[in-house]
Design brief:
Blueprint (H helix, E strand, L loop, with lengths): L2 E6 L4 H11 L4 E4 L9 H10 L2 E4 L3 H9 L7 E4 L11 E2 L8 H7 L2 E3 L3 H15 L10 E7 L4 H9 L4 H4 L3 E3 L8 H9 L6 E7 L5 E8 L9 H11 L6 E3 L18 E8 L4 E8 L3 H15 L11
Parallel strand pairs: 1-2, 1-3, 3-4, 4-6, 5-6, 7-9, 11-12
Antiparallel strand pairs: 7-10, 8-9, 10-13, 12-13
Helix pairs in contact: 1-10, 5-8, 5-9
Length: 313
């Protein structure tokens, strides 16, 4: 069986990485448009409808437009934009998040690819809320840092342009200071929280990689919760997963590039029972499990292919 896949937006950072993961596979054939036809509405509509699966690597409005051009009930859509991530009509494309996620993805025709920061946050928090260790009313904060490729072509150009001294001289910058980042609703909805977390993202001078941290004051929880109980909940949630791992070893130093170049998601727990404090940390590649790797994993599940085919373990 050969699956015909059209990547709409294949020239962007996410699209190029998806293409790399699919290009050498014998079970996938890429549907492509010549450069002069990429912006031709008729040519795009034809490609969207001819493909078995479409991966949208587009801004939100363009992604919605692409979906509207599909006139059949056969083509499966994986949308990497934020347009449909909280839409209940779309299956949320985090295969490991819920016990029935894979079944939903396997039968879905519309899949929303998760955001990179929400992937790390949800992997840490959702199992704890589901297990009742942390109440849905808990007020989380999220400290997170990404490589600059997460900002797309414009940010990559700024960081790599030797003529832009403001960019090239900056090692670390915080942003989203207006507290209205588009990832917050996604985090709240899929974690099952009553309130969105305080989200504190930053970008660092490294091309790829990501750390997402959710600290918890254990002694402030309504019921006594130990670090061991948190670890047990995480291990149970991801037992047998090929891509999500709960690390037993606790390194003294955890770098932004820990999972760079892979499609893995590694979780760490640092807990001090005496102080009642815990730091939950997720390491991933913002372009891997945080974007392109997740899209390929969702494609594999949706089309009945080997789940990790083409992925970087």
């Amino acid at each position: 069986m050969t699956v015909h896949v059209f990547i709409d937006g294949a020239a962007g950072t996410t699209g190029l990485e998806i293409r790399e993961r699919l290009a050498r596979r014998s079970d996938v054939a890429l549907v492509t448009l010549a450069d002069e036809r990429r912006k031709d509405p008729a040519a795009r509509a034809e490609a969207l409808n001819d493909a078995d699966a479409v991966i949208l690597c587009l801004p939100d409005d363009a992604a919605r437009e692409a979906v509207s051009l599909i006139r059949n009930d056969r083509t499966k859509v994986i949308d990497a934009s934020t347009a449909h991530r909280t839409d209940p009509a779309w299956a949320y494309g985090f295969a490991e998040l819920e016990p029935d996620s894979r079944q939903r993805l396997a039968s879905a025709t519309r899949i929303s690819n998760p955001g990179c920061y929400p992937t790390g946050f949800l992997a840490l928090v959702r199992p704890l809320v589901r297990a009742g260790l942390v109440p849905a009313s808990w007020l989380f904060s999220v400290n997170a840092t990404s490589g600059y490729s997460g900002g797309g072509k414009s940010m990559i150009a700024a960081f790599e342009d030797p003529a832009d001294s403001q960019a090239t001289d900056t090692a670390f910058r915080i942003y989203a200071l207006g507290l209205g980042h588009k990832h917050v609703p996604e985090m709240r909805v899929h974690a099952g929280l009553d309130h969105g977390p305080i989200f504190m993202p930053a970008v660092a001078r490294t091309y790829r990689g990501m750390l997402v941290e959710a600290p918890i004051h254990l002694h402030a929880l309504p019921a006594a919760v130990s670090g061991s109980a948190i670890r047990d909940a995480l291990q149970q949630a991801y037992e047998g997963s090929s891509l999500v791992h709960v690390n037993e070893a606790q390194p003294g130093l955890l770098t932004l590039e820990h999972c760079a170049g892979t499609d893995r998601l590694e979780l760490f727990l640092f807990a001090d029972e005496k102080s009642g404090q815990a730091r939950l940390v997720a390491a991933l590649d913002n372009l891997g499990k945080g974007a392109s790797g997740a899209a390929v994993q969702n494609l594999n599940i949706a089309m009945g292919l080997e789940e990790t085919a083409g992925l970087r373990l």
